[in-house]
């Protein structure tokens, strides 16, 4: 039998405490005090400075020890609030557990999956529902269930409330909140206006937003995400956390089936099992507006708002990218899920047009136009860059230098963007490797008279993906993640996420990509070879390794 006193534990691994987190922690501590419970921040770095207002609340305790050490004698007393758990939290859990543990995924935006690390420590898990909550909301809901004995389904919520900043600007809070007696969302401050102003400042003047992608597995821009049927099927797949459209242009791409083709092959060239691809494709023949129409149609079919969103992949001139951003941002206001834009500057197959992402100067031009577009809209959406495979240090440095140059000065410089941050939220690494050649073997009956010929039309050269690209992709993800982390500042650094792409086809490949530093893992060739089942296979492989628990 558990004790009547409950302890709510939040793992806090950052050396600093942001203003938003401080408000959340103060709310948790005060409400815990009122409920006769305790609130603990664990795993605090030695240099962490606890705010005086938090220290003054008797229910609060700061701990440098991790929860594994705090409850080393009996892990069964601890319940991990885990979105991947097999069962929901119930009032009966208040009789079973003494402590309730919250990892980073519940409160961060974008989420950092500290929960997956804790899951591996063997704590029993419970779900709070499918919609992302702020940390204080997650603790509030848990307390209502285990101390107040209110079943989850009887708690009233407000999902993704829109809060108005002034008559011209508003922001949608990307979380679920408990509905207060006044019908408004309960937020971590005595003054909801101040709380909303602070969040608006963080999202609009600080770090660009990135919607939650969970599970952290997606398709990337590819031929198998072209039609509305493709996108519908991908959206319905429960083993993916978002859907990426095939890369489109505002005016569409002049696709010629005779020239733009793809082929599968085995990278060892000795096995019939295909695990790689080569393509001479350009972009989708469908226009950006066509894809936005698909997205609106899929949204209209949903019974309620969903946290699973779309990444709309686009390309074109810098002016096209700015116009695309405005179109997608406008559409985001009318659909029932979040949208992001990915700028594909890395296709190796466009004649006389080297991938712009290899050039710091060209990247900077694109980012300048993007900043100007961002400054002209009231609702920001996440924006990512899809990069080509980098093979030497100068290429990586060109990328980082272009991103740094896109961060406005304190006086709002850099082309008039007054919102204070690099407009890039994520980097998709990598696209295909260009100038690759696949030859068809001559017939065995007359190998000398029929020399090997290219599989693809024309020169036969194209972009390679799949298994042979995997080591290079891992190196790109690892290097980009490391270089971003070395920046460590709030306008770039750790706040730019990495989507790792290249040669992932099973659970082992997924884990390698995550170990290299990917926040989200994407794949395309394996989707073309095996269909949607590849996502289920990866999830199943992870569960098998974790003994039946989710391995995300």
Automatic annotation (TrEMBL):
This is Dihydroorotate dehydrogenase (fumarate). It comes from the Eukaryota. InterPro entries: Aldolase_TIM, DHOD_1A, Dihydro_DH_chainA_dom2, Dihydroorotate_DH_cat, SFM1-like. Gene3D superfamilies: Aldolase class I, Dihydroorotate Dehydrogenase A, chain A, domain 2. Coiled coil: none annotated. Keywords: Cytoplasm, Oxidoreductase. Residues 440-459 are annotated as: Disordered. Belongs to the dihydroorotate dehydrogenase family. Type 1 subfamily. PANTHER family: PROTEIN ARGININE N-METHYLTRANSFERASE SFM1. Residues 275-544 form the Dihydroorotate dehydrogenase catalytic domain. GO terms for cellular component: cytoplasm. One of its GO terms (biological process) is pyrimidine nucleotide biosynthetic process. One of its GO terms (molecular function) is protein-arginine omega-N monomethyltransferase activity. It comes from Corynascus novoguineensis.
């Amino acid at each position: 039998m558990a004790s009547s006193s409950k302890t709510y534990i939040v793992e806090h691994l950052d050396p600093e405490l942001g203003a938003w987190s401080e408000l959340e922690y103060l709310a948790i501590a005060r409400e815990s005090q009122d409920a006769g419970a305790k609130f603990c921040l664990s795993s605090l770095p030695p240099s962490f400075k606890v705010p005086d207002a938090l220290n003054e609340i008797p229910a609060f305790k700061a701990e440098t020890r991790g929860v594994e050490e705090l409850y080393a004698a009996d892990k069964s007393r601890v319940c991990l609030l885990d979105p991947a758990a097999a069962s929901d939290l119930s009032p009966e859990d208040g009789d079973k557990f003494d402590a309730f543990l919250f990892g980073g995924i519940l409160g961060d935006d974008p989420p950092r999956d500290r929960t997956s690390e804790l899951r591996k420590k063997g704590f029993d898990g419970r779900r709070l529902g499918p919609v992302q909550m702020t940390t204080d909301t997650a603790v509030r809901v848990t307390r209502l269930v285990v101390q107040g004995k209110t079943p989850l389904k009887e708690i009233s919520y407000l999902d993704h409330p829109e809060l108005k900043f002034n008559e011209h600007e508003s922001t949608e809070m990307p979380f679920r909140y408990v509905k207060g007696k006044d019908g408004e969302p309960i937020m971590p401050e005595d003054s909801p206006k101040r709380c909303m102003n602070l969040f608006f400042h963080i999202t609009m003047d600080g770090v660009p937003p990135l919607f939650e992608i969970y599970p952290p597995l997606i398709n990337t821009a590819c031929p198998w995400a072209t039609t509305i049927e493709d996108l519908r099927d991908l959206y319905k797949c429960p083993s993916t956390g978002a859907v990426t459209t095939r890369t489109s242009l505002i005016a569409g791409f002049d696709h010629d089936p005779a020239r733009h083709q793809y082929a599968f092959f085995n990278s060892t060239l000795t096995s019939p099992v295909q695990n790689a691809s080569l393509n001479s494709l350009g972009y989708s023949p469908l226009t950006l507006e066509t894809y936005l129409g698909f997205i609106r149609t899929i949204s209209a079919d949903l019974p309620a708002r969903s946290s699973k969103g779309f990444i709309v992949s686009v390309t074109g001139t810098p002016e096209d990218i700015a116009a695309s951003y405005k179109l997608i941002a406008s559409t985001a206001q009318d659909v029932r899920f979040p949208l992001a834009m990915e700028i594909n500057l890395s296709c190796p197959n466009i004649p006389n047009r080297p991938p712009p992402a290899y050039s710091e100067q060209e990247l900077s031009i694109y980012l300048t136009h993007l900043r100007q577009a961002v400054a002209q809209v009231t609702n920001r959406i996440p924006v990512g860059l899809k990069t080509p495979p980098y093979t030497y240090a100068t290429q990586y440095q060109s990328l980082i230098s272009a991103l740094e140059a896109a961060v406005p000065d304190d006086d709002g410089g850099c082309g008039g963007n007054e919102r204070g941050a690099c407009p890039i939220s994520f980097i998709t690494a990598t696209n295909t490797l260009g100038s690759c050649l696949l030859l068809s073997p001559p017939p065995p009956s007359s190998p000398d008279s029929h020399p090997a010929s290219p599989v693809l039309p024309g020169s036969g050269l194209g972009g390679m993906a799949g298994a042979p690209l995997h080591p290079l992709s891992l190196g790109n993800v690892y290097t980009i993640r490391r270089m971003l982390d070395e920046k460590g500042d709030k306008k770039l650094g750790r706040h730019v996420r990495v989507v790792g792409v290249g040669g992932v086809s099973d659970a082992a490949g997924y884990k390698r990509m995550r170990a290299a530093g990917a926040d989200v893992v994407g794949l395309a060739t394996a989707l073309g070879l095996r269909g949607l089942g590849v996502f289920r296979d990866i999830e199943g492989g992870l569960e098998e390794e974790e003994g039946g628990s989710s391995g995300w």
